Amino acid sequence: MTGGPVARRASRVESSRTAQVAGRLGMACWGLVHLVVAYLAVRVAFGDSGHEADQKGALQEIGGTAFGRVLLWVLAVGLIAFGLWQGMLAATGYGWVREHGKRVRKRIGSGARGVVVFGLAYTAIRLATGSGSGSGDQAQQEFTAKLLSLPAGPVLVAVAAAVVVGVGIAAAVKGVKRSFLRDLDTSELPTGSRRAVEWLGAAGYVAKGLVYVIIGALLGYAALRSDARQAGGLDKALRTLAAQPYGVVLLVIVALGLAAFGVYCFAAARAHRS
User: Fold this and answer.
1) Residues 66-72: what's their mean pLDDT?
2) Rounded distance, CA 251 to CA 37, Å?
3) pLDDT confidence bin for 1, thresholds 50/70/90
4) pLDDT reported for residue 229
């Protein structure tokens, strides 16, 4: 009898350690994807079409060589680990967040992130096996077309657009307020690096927020015009930004922000609470 609680406690500790290792590996892979997306965004800014400047384009860029295909498998494993960790956080995580409503929102966010990451891992596996095709923008437009074909379809797309814009604003606010630091155990960071991690995270979340707002705006325009071709994902959002006055400068700034988020992910891989 006395060994029961002790064994269960040891099992929980071991599970926590396993989740922490999976989370760290996955967050590092997530950071690498963002660094490659930032690189592709800079190429878009200077007129190099190449691969699409989105997560799938990043995976295609990575898998462009024989070694890259091996790296795609490593990334796929890491992304699956990250997705499982996000699922765990969605189920039982964020115990350090005292406010119930905020904890629920964070869990929902982790659940949604886990779904996205699993999809990206699946894409990595398909590309590694040579069976990947299509584009992120095409998938977005096909999904939007299906929504528009439903009764009250434009309304549904407009609601989705509002949600995406809301996510973008929330991400930007998270960066401005530096609230992401509450999810980190800063004692795990190297001495003197906290300020750098703070600035990297702030720039990264603001950049991601801006991109989400543009994606939401494109989706809203598609709803207004009842034209799925107006919708698009990350690649179209970045190309739309590049087409604006001073677009090259703006896109380079956003690319630097996405790169900052990628580097931040490596720090968060070490210090994120679990």
Assistant:
1) 77
2) 12
3) very low
4) 73
* Cα separation, 205 vs 63, whole angstroms: 27
Give percent above pLDDT 70 in the chain: 82
CB 172 within 8 A of CB 205: yes
Residue type, 61: E
What confidence category does residue 135 fall into, taking pLDDT thresholds of 50, 70 and 90?
low
Say how far residue 95 (Cα) sits from the centre of its chain: 22
End-to-end CA distance of the chain: 30
Query: What does the chain come to in residues?
Result: 274
Task: Report whether 141 contacts 147 (CB < 8 A).
Answer: no
Backbone angles phi, psi at 184, to 5 degrees: -110, 145
AA letter at 259: A
Contact 173, 216 (CB under 8 A): no
- Judged by phi (left if over 0) then psi (alpha if -120 to 50, else beta), residue 233 lies in beta
Whether residue 56 contacts residue 139, with contact meaning beta carbons closer than 8 Å, is answered with: no
Unique residue bearing structure tokens 């989705």: 160
CB-neighbour burial class of residue 118 (10 A; exposed 0-12, middle 13-18, buried 19+): middle
166 vs 186: CA distance, rounded Å: 28
**Phi, psi angle pair for 272, to nearest 5°:** -65, 135
List b or e across 235-261, with b for residues whose CB sees 16 or more CB atoms inside 10 angstroms.
bbbbbbbbeeeebbebbbebbbbbbbb
